[in-house]
Amino acid sequence: MLEKRNPIPVAEAIQKVMLYAREGEKERVPLTEAYGRYLAEDLYADHDVPPFDRSPYDGFAIRAADSALASLDHPVELEVIETIGAGQVAAKAVAAFQAVRIMTGAPIPDGCDAVVMLELAKQYERNGKTYISIKRPFRSGDNISFQGEDVKKGEVLAEKGTFINPGVQALLATFGYSEVKVAQKPKIGIAATGNELLDVSEPLVPGKIRNSNAYMIQAQVLRSGATPVDLGKLPDDPDQCLAAIEQALPDVDFLITTGGVSVGDYDYLPVIYERLGAEVLFNKVAMRPGSVTTVAQLDGKLLFGLSGNPSACYVGYELFVRPVVRTMLYSSTPHLYKTKAILLEDFTKPNPFTRFVRSYVSAQGGQLYASPVGMDKSNIVTSLAKANALTVLPGGTRGFVKGDLVDVWLLDSEEGSAQ
Amino acid sequence: MLEKRNPIPVAEAIQKVMLYAREGEKERVPLTEAYGRYLAEDLYADHDVPPFDRSPYDGFAIRAADSALASLDHPVELEVIETIGAGQVAAKAVAAFQAVRIMTGAPIPDGCDAVVMLELAKQYERNGKTYISIKRPFRSGDNISFQGEDVKKGEVLAEKGTFINPGVQALLATFGYSEVKVAQKPKIGIAATGNELLDVSEPLVPGKIRNSNAYMIQAQVLRSGATPVDLGKLPDDPDQCLAAIEQALPDVDFLITTGGVSVGDYDYLPVIYERLGAEVLFNKVAMRPGSVTTVAQLDGKLLFGLSGNPSACYVGYELFVRPVVRTMLYSSTPHLYKTKAILLEDFTKPNPFTRFVRSYVSAQGGQLYASPVGMDKSNIVTSLAKANALTVLPGGTRGFVKGDLVDVWLLDSEEGSAQ
Known about the structure:
Molybdopterin biosynthesis moeA protein, domain 3; about 425 residues; 25 strands; magnesium (chains A, B); Molybdopterin biosynthesis moea protein, domain 2; homodimer; EC 2.10.1.1 (chains A, B); MoeA_C_domain_IV (chains A, B); Molybdenum Cofactor Biosythetic Enzyme, Chain A
């Protein structure tokens, strides 16, 4: 009656899932809706930046040669023949010892090759004409932002898969992307199992708990860049359950179920997978929490059977679902961002399985520190709210002590890791 | 003609703005829309967790005293009188040397005080009755998750201002928050100034550039948790401009303008502030980029005059607007998350003003490192896309060299700093 399962290492389990990861579809959105999405194509420059030689300051555009002999004792006088603002173009030709009053961002008039900042020029009128005097020489090119010095036309500025942050949004605007090709959001079906589950709006009754996993996963789906599709609670009857899943599958990219994957009498997901004709990739992983995490595939579509235990469910999503979501979003670094931190508490209990300890990582003086949050019992929901990382303690070791440098996988980082 | 401005230190400028920061309004949203919002009220437990003594494993609930003499040589036999799944409650009273088959999450039957895991019990049938034998003693409380051991009813689990991440969402579900009181998103009007600005969909023409700041700020507004209100481009005429601002103000919590705050002939924001009757809090900050950043207040409503230079505009938002937004969202840590990192490049040029260097901070071996991204010329838009931090180099120093531990303010962190 008690099914024997063979636990596989975490890395191997992730690898098995990633065999089915593929890039997703694209869609066009207006630039005003691009923030927070992922580029589905490389972003390239449609013009040089700056697009023309321009002034970075308010001041006067001059011919540098005219200023060659300027000094404190012998200022050089230039006639100001025109004023141009940003967005305007000089109308007149600039001759020897002439200058143009120029605003920040305005194009350098033909013939001029330097800009004198406003505060370095003394301006005055004489006989109805405007003059400036300058007391030092300028070299050709002084105070000019040259065409293309920031970006050359055709340059790739951000690769597909890039998260559209405010800086990328600015680039998109600069280069005329009034519409942006972004990755379509994968649709992820979420179904809960468990006779003990009440909906969030139901009052508590003896023996029952509210369904928190579905709401938690929904938020994890959103955080990872996908769209949750709420499939409610699966019916208790295997036939109805099978029918519900078969009906839901065509409309989603992945299906997540929570609960029902253990070896208890009421854990019927293994039966469902069998009746669906799905191939089970693994049904036991050498990790805590989440050892019963089960993943199957049906015609290349992944079915994630996450544990009904909230912490195990949470970890299962981040380890196995997030990377396939991010791959659909064109990321080349689809896994959680991996780094190291100094452990702030002892973890001396040896464990044959790799532990994923919900942790809060903080930076002090440029050094990262990891504090486990709450007791690490896998049924504690409250610690998830404060965790921003998983501390990864490999199995088969003698435990870890305060001060050890340990692996941490960051949960909130928009960046990821390739492996 | 050249107005003299008195630069104030960055910290003082921030302080002057924060005098006008206030908490915002609240609204109710369904739990399914709560992810990514901010709690407007403390989240407290409406019941103990676990809500009853329950089994963390599949197994058998027993009376521990019955197992006192169990050993390998002298197993103890118990009669299994009932089976209860999660969500069910035991119907029978358990007498001496009786046990109940129990599933993960099910309530411990009255009279039982320990759980034997499935794999530690040998189960068999005899005369139509089910028995188990166990080969070791159990103590009272073994393998029981006790009522309230995770959370006690009434406990505050997350304070107002908390960002609703997947873990908080799980808590909200667990404690029956089918609707959640969240902070209303502040509405921020964004208007661009500058005759040189083309809309993103317009083709480039000589002397003009596309308006990237409005789109960048729009994304910054979203990242900080607020709602952007696009007010387009301000008209060139001061009267029309004044009218446009007066019309927009009642509908927004803050107004941001980009450009027009410098001392050029076409920088008319100072005039507008004067005609509005707004009090200018400062119009020069001892920082680069963004020294011309101007902030005014009118009847307590903040008017942010950010520089038209993209990098200065970006920094101005994060330093001055973000903390007032986060304060409206009830955060007690409204400023950018501040920490330190090891500088990976020399910055030997001394500067009287504090520099905010767009940087990429990475973690290697538990240590944070800061690399400036792109050349640090304030008119370079491309480096903003890759920046995830501002390296802060105080003015009045002799410069910084590779290997120095410097201040970094993180841009993408959901967390913040109190100061």
